[in-house]
């Protein structure tokens, strides 16, 4: 018997019992988060009105490398974890590469993406402190669907602001949220001051994650017993997502390999951080030399072409000031199909790691991403989400370099979600009508200059 | 540590190496399949023009209880098998039942349903004998998507006739088929004689599986080097699907239980046979007393209210005559959302087993099925396909009986697919506009009388 093993699962007792908090082990800690008015360094307490308290503590925790996962959360993780680590024999063959390509298949979660990994703990901690309502924003709807599901599990009411362009492009995700009892509003909406301000100035505004965040934050701040939740960007979200990389580490060991390169698509950072940080730990502590590549859309290139600045996390300027790579919080990304990547900034931790040269970034044109996604679908049978297509495109670039140089590198990428709800985007791609959106240097410079003036 | 285990997986080496052929062990063999003109018993050779030869041999094999799965097929199964066996703690809690409910989650296949289990072998055997083109029909699109995928894997061209009402209700499935390079035509179409005959008489005909089969068969018979494939009803399809039950048997052993009741939804029989036959074997040989329940839609109740007759498998009468429970091949099922169950007849093996009292059937109204599916989604986090909702409804009926009687029965059902592509159906349900379709006795009697006249 000499069978090639394709998928690696962990037994339930090996599902992580701790999240990995890279903040405690980074060579340089992130710069502080500031109050926009006083410019003073914020503390967890300052965020209590907005988020569940435990999440605020996690956000600022720079001392504990391992944070215990409460058992009720682990019980919920068992509904879909461990997710499989898959050897992509089909893709390797299609490319004719000597590289060994693996992917962590987060698309098998019931909501179709990795987002549930943080939705469950966020809903749990809200419930624990007696909150009754949660609110959030969502782009493509992966996060909103996951929060709606987690809220239902813990008996919370959920209100979701969905970026309007995605609300229209992906009507099924709205229906999924409604199946779990959530109330869904396209953003910008007339239901908030932030939304009204934008709509009265730009009635056809397609929306952006930055704007939807403003609306959700405003709702949370004006509604009793309601907390805001966020699906990416923040430190505590990245923390929860480390279950991906922690599982992958054990599964790669089962496969007898260790990744030379780890790749994930990049919107605010949640799935990238999730798969990368547990491996990056060994670069920091054990002198490993793994490369970490964030694959962002060319239409929203904050890591490759943005600037490191203090900026708001949302469009209206309701959030604290975050030290991050940004295109400016007023940047409106083009209407690409990767709704989950249409965000102007990178999380605080990632921004510091990027500055310190611990990771890299590439940008991918929309059509290259769908070329890659279609090749992957035909080789591996899984239709990837438009967001994940960016990770696949970056993986293919590296695998083809290996082919050119005859290198047998081990590449691991995160398949953050499936694209079954995104078929309208594939239709557009197959029709030949899909276009690429280049951001001009002038536009970026103008946005950053605006920022520097404020 | 006293953790409740939720999901059971098999290691790859435990993925079945043989399919289980119940024909060899049935107490009464099925009645013969007949040539409609001569009324003579058909042999495998008679079907060679239509199907791959190996499939024809499997169709008629009444002697070998175990049929070896070729290694290339097993390699493809590894892309998604084993599928998890899941203990539905959430559903049990929601119902307050002492029953232990398990489900086999076939929805994790890359195409979202169990259909790939037979699409892969059918494409493989076609390729092996040098066929270049395959054709088929599909209802909701689960089978068509799976065949498109399998055809792509083995380098075949695929043409799919999709029942028009489903083509319109579920546009994403068409896009999925196209992603894998298949050509998709709504049925009835003007591209075949069978389609033309129907459309000229009934221009707004919504289509049915029976009609789509006629069109695909006609295409296969008139196209060089093209074979027909079928996603249900036939013996060889049920054979391939036994990987479901064979895995479940090992997984139930891991859980330390054995099912008192096995339940699956019923269209032509493929997922029902797949999960049932390996367990039914122990009723036949080892005196087990498991009950097997086929859950069919009230709008298409061939097992509960149809008659056992020789009938055609398709609307136009191109197929051989099959001994089966049927509503008559001219029966047009109402436009329910469970497109995969809109078929007038039951497979030959199931029909014999039903006649011999080895299994039971129940019929489920459309709204009851969505009540059940929504309850399940909220309890287990997985949105079930409208077809699978019927199995869940039947499971809930049994679990509530257990509650009434204080019985701790073990119920296993097959979650044949997820409903992420069927959200428009859920929208309809949530809107309150969904209606039930009762078939009158007169309509059934009239159809059967027509049959008896022919």
Walkthrough of the structure:
The structure is a homodimer of 454-residue chains. The first copy, chain A, is of the alpha/beta class. Helices cover 43% and strands 16% of the residues of chain A. Chain A has 18 helices and 15 strands. Chain A has helices spanning 44-47, 53-60, 71-77, 89-95, 116-128, 142-153, 164-169, 171-179, 193-201, 209-222, 235-254, 270-286, 302-305, 348-355, 366-380, 386-405, 423-431, 441-453; strands spanning 7-8, 18-20, 66-68, 85-87, 100-105, 133-138, 157-163, 183-187, 226-228, 261-265, 291-297, 307-312, 321-326, 360-364, 410-415. In chain A, the strands form four sheets. In chain A, strands 1-4-5-15-10-11-14 form a seven-stranded mixed sheet, with helices on both faces. In chain A, strand 10 (261-265), helix 12 (270-286) and strand 11 form a beta-alpha-beta unit. Chain A is globular. The first copy, chain A, starts with 6 loop residues before the first strand and ends with a helix.
Provide the fold topology.
The structure is a homodimer of 454-residue chains.
Chain A: E1 7-8, E2 18-20, H1 44-47, H2 53-60, E3 66-68, H3 71-77, E4 85-87, H4 89-95, E5 100-105, H5 116-128, E6 133-138, H6 142-153, E7 157-163, H7 164-169, H8 171-179, E8 183-187, H9 193-201, H10 209-222, E9 226-228, H11 235-254, E10 261-265, H12 270-286, E11 291-297, H13 302-305, E12 307-312, E13 321-326, H14 348-355, E14 360-364, H15 366-380, H16 386-405, E15 410-415, H17 423-431, H18 441-453
